[in-house]
Amino acid sequence: MTTSDAPATHLLIINAHEPLAWVLENQRMAFPAGRSQQSLSLRKGDELLLYTTRGCFGNPTRDLGRVIGLATITSEVHTLDAPVVFQERRFTEGCRLRVHGLTPFREGVVLRDLVNDLQVFPDPAHWSFRMRRASLRLPDADAALIKRELQPLLKPYGSVVGDYSLKRR
């Protein structure tokens, strides 16, 4: 296997609670129309670090952007038979995931605390600009650092997934 064939690690950036609950409950990801070039960079076998933005739970003054889970893509990204719709926004591409673990609700690795140590953010003062996308491929060293911070916080998927449901905000 060449380096280009090796599985990559991506931050999967989720900025709203309803899509987050859908992703976690269905172990699937859907990408918005017009983002197919970005979603096609994801491949079966790639690893995902699930990241929730400050605004994901509707209170950006209380919540912080956190890496909350670890998953693997288990299917190729493909055009969905029927789009997934959240608040009138259509998500037309998708793939299946296997979520390996989640942090307890409103816990996780606060990404801004690591920004100065991550190569993916060459200009730490403007790091949030790079987060305005569905996913962000991470250099190997960045992925290793985030996973090292995340690992002690992870709980088995089944023991915490219900805490992320739409009923709990």
Description of the structure:
It is a single chain. The chain is α+β, with helices and mostly antiparallel strands and 169 residues long. 17% of the residues lie in helices and 33% in strands. Strands 1, 2, 3, 4, 5, 6, 7, 8 and 9 form a 9-stranded mixed β-sheet that branches. A hairpin with a 2-residue loop joins β5 and β6. The longest helix is centred in the C-terminal third of the chain and has 11 residues, at 140-150. The protein is globular, with a radius of gyration of 15 Å. The mean pLDDT is 89.
**Proportion in β-strands:** 25-35%
Give average pLDDT, whole number: 89
Helical amount among residues, as a percent range?
10-25%
In DSSP terms (H or I, runs of 4 or more residues), the helix count works out at 4
What class, by secondary structure content?
alpha+beta
Low-confidence stretches: none
- Net shape: globular
Distance between the amino and carboxyl termini: 44 Å
Q: Work out the radius of gyration.
A: 15 Å
Q: What series of H and E elements makes up the topology? A: EHEHEEEEEEHEH
Tally of DSSP β-strands:
9
Main sheet record: 9 strands, mixed
Summarize the structure.
This protein is of the alpha+beta class. 17% of the residues lie in helices and 33% in strands.
SSE map:
Elements: E1 9-14, H1 17-26, E2 28-32, H2 36-39, E3 47-52, E4 66-73, E5 78-86, E6 89-102, E7 109-110, E8 135-138, H3 140-150, E9 155-156, H4 157-160
Parallel strand pairs: 1-3
Antiparallel strand pairs: 1-8, 2-6, 3-4, 4-6, 4-7, 5-6, 6-9
